[in-house]
Amino acid sequence: MSSSTLKTFSFTGTNRKGASVKGDIEAGNIQLAQAKLRKQGVIADRIKPKSNPLFVKGVRDKDVTFFTRQLGTMLKSGIPITQALEITAEGQKNPAFKNQILQIKRDIESGLSLHEALRRHPKQFDDLYRSLVESGELSGNLEGMLGRIAEYKEKILSIKSKIKKAAYYPVFVLLFAFSITLFLMLKVVPQFVDMFEQQGADLPTITKVVTTMSEWLQDWWIIMLLVIVGTVIGFFQLLKRSKSFQQQMDVFLLKLPLFGSLIKRSILARFARTLSTSFSSGVPMVECLDSCAKAANNYVYTNAILKIKEDVASGQELAFAMKQTGVFTPLMIQMTNIGEESGAIDDMEDKAADYYEQEVDDTVEGLLSLIEPAMMILLGGIITVILLAIYLPIFDIGSLVG
Q1: What share of the chain is helix, strand, coil (3-state, %, to 5)?
Q2: Predicted pLDDT of residue 281
Q3: Which one of 63, 160, 186, 266 is least enclosed by Cβ atoms within 10 Å?
Q4: Alpha-carbon torsion 270, 275, 276, 277, what sign?
Q5: What is the distance between the alpha carbons of residues 72 and 80, in angstroms, rounded to a whole number?
Q6: What is the pLDDT of residue 18?
């Protein structure tokens, strides 16, 4: 029975001790599943194909990183690879990734090497990952190589996490400020407007502006929300489907004040870390640069690295080719040049990665220290304006009564 035709069935039944059991089992059909359960001492009273969930959770980089670390640790402890894969699969909370790991296990049992089995899952295990695994298998140090891959992926994930932290914080604060403002304008301000109209007071300009905005929002807030949500969804769909729009956004992001510098540093850190890890593992330089281009995740730098790859393939020195692109910092070029002259490119790129990762840390901390008070001032300013608009007429009415 081909592994590709195996299906997952859910069952309930009783074991040899008469206790009720339930779970999932893989087999070609229901009859084979029943036979497999009988061998395990389980008499099934209900067995049926397991339905796929409506929303399938994707496999995250974090899942792959943890899997890599866990697999390397178990292999280092002397556990056979098929058994290690089965153990890691059982510990997975993501059903999709669990099935992939079990598929890899079956492929290895059928005679494939690990890197060949991983080739059937290119979305989760990219060219660099598979090349490094292959190098580990050829050198007889697969467990050590998996540890290095895990360390590499952990550092890349750390950089991405810091970028997200710097981007998400102001978005969250703005959403919070928008929600508070909407609540005040729709629920609080109208109550005071009714009171002011009953008193017949002459309202200050700021109150007139706020009450006019409140009335407008009461009539149009649903449409406004739909427009905002539609714009956001449309933006991300366009970003997902339009290559030219993606490229324009990549260029735009690099030009942003403060954030542009952070993005550049994170790309340089990923470039240096990827080059160091792959080159030190015996991957040819041209293939290393291919992996670096994919890791850049930015149109400007991806194109620049692919141009470097062409120049290096034609015989140019790496540092010179990097300088010609005009997108790498003098420090990065200088460190690469020293690495080439000393024959220790991997060591120098490793040092460059450490430096730029620290730069990312420092930049994120600096940005957050600027963004936090700015967001608080913005939120406080909005609330203050609305409160002034509400209470100034109350003070005027109070003074007239007095």
Answers
A1: 75, 5, 20
A2: 86
A3: 186
A4: positive
A5: 11
A6: 80
Q: What is the pLDDT of residue 399?
A: 54
Query: For the chain, give me the number of helices (H) and strands (E)?
Result: 16, 3
- 312: closest CA among 280, 342, 345, 281? 345
DSSP one-letter code for 41: T
Tell me 3's DSSP state: G
Which residues make Cβ contacts (< 8 Å) with residue 285, sequence separation at least 6? 279, 312, 318
CA gap 9, 28 in Å, rounded: 10
**So what's the pLDDT on residue 17?**
80
Q: What angle do CA 120, 125, 129 make, to 5 degrees?
A: 120
Return the amino acid letter for 88.
Answer: T
**CB neighbour class for 205 (10 Å; exposed up to 12, middle 13-18, buried from 19):** exposed
What's the rounded Cα separation, in Å, for the pair 148 and 103?
24
pLDDT, mean over the chain? 86
Question: Pairing mode, if any, of strands 20-27 and 43-49?
Answer: unpaired
The torsion of the CA quartet 239, 244, 248, 254, rounded to 10 degrees, works out to 80
d(CA 357, CA 109): 40
* pLDDT at res. 2: 43
Measure the CA–CA gap between 80 and 27, rounded to whole angstroms.
24
Closest CA to 100 of 88, 112, 113, 83: 88
Residue 113's pLDDT is 92
Cβ atoms 325, 311 nearer than 8 A: no
Stretches where the chain sits below pLDDT 50 are: 1-4, 54-56, 400-402
Other C-beta atoms closer than 10 Å to the C-beta of 16 total 9
Residues listed for the chain: 402
pTM: 0.73
CB within 8 A of 265, min separation 6: which ones?
A: 356, 359, 360, 363
